[in-house]
Amino acid sequence: MKAAPDIAARRLSLILAAERLFADQGLEAVSLSQVNQAAGHRNASAVHYHFGSRDGLVEAVFDHRMGLINPRRLAIMDRLAEEGRLTELRPLVCAWVQPFAEELKPRDEGNYSLRFLERLLRDEPLFIRRNAIKDLGAFWVTGWKVAEALEALLTYLPPQIARMRLKLLRLQVISGLAAIEARGDHEMTDFQIEALIDCLVGGLTAPVSHQAMQALRGGTD
C-alpha cells in the first residue's frame, strides 16, 4: 500500500532538487548524477527511471510549477470577467504577474521556481530546436490569454509596437520576479511586486518615441 506514495515522494524529491540546481547553475550545466545526489538517492539511475532523460526531467519541473500557476491565472481571469474588468490595464497585468508572484511565498525547501523559469525562458530556443519539450507554448498559454486582452487595449499603438511590448512584458515578468526571489527579502516582497507591476504598466503605455518609429521603418525618416 505504501509503494505509490513512496514513488510519488521520490519523484517529487528529484523534481525539487533539479529545480534548485537548474535555477543555480543552468539547465545544461547540471548532471543527472548531481540531481540524484542532491535528492538523496543512492540509485544512480533514479532520474532515468522516473523521467527518462534530462529533457524529461526539465519538462517535469516546469509541469510541476505551471500545474499550480496556470489555474491561479485562470481563476483571476474568471473573476475579472465576472466583475466586468477585462478592459482595465493594471488588473490584467496583475493577472499575468500574481500567479507567478505566489511562488515567492517562503517554502521549507527554499524558493527556486522563478529562477528556474527564467533559465527555461532563456534556453527556450534550445529546447525547441531539440524538440525536447513537445508543446512549450502550452507552458505560457494562460499568460497569452491575458496578452490577448491586453493587446485589445493597445490598438492605438502601431501593431508591431504593441506586439513587441507584450513580448518584453513576458520576459520582464519572469526576470523581475526571479530577481526578487534571488534577493530573498521577504519583508519587502509585496512592495517589490507592486513596483514591478507599475513598471510593466508604464512600459505598455509609454509614448512611442521618434527613435522607435524610425527604427521600425528601417532607419528612414
Structural Rg: 20 Å
End-to-end C-alpha gap: 74 Å
**Helical run tally:** 10
Q: In one word, what is the shape? A: elongated
* Mean pLDDT rating: 88
User: What amount of the residues lies in strands?
Assistant: under 5%
Oligomer state equals single chain
Structural class: mainly alpha
Biggest beta sheet attributes: none
Number of DSSP strand runs? 0
The low-pLDDT segments are: none
Secondary-structure element pattern, one letter each: HHHHHHHHHH
| Share of helix, binned | over 70%
Secondary-structure blueprint of this entry?
Layout: H1 3-25, H2 32-38, H3 46-51, H4 54-82, H5 89-101, H6 113-130, H7 141-153, H8 159-183, H9 189-205, H10 210-216
What does this structure look like?
It is a single chain. The protein is elongated, with a radius of gyration of 20 Å. It has 221 residues and is mostly helical. The chain has a domain at 63-216. The mean pLDDT is 88. It has helices spanning 3-25, 32-38, 46-51, 54-82, 89-101, 113-130, 141-153, 159-183, 189-205, 210-216. It starts with a helix and ends in a 5-residue tail after the last helix. The chain contains ten helices and no strands. InterPro entries: Homeodomain-like_sf (IPR009057), HTH_TetR (IPR001647). This is TetR/AcrR family transcriptional regulator. One of its GO terms (molecular function) is DNA binding. It holds the Pfam family TetR_N. Residues 15-61 form the HTH tetR-type domain.
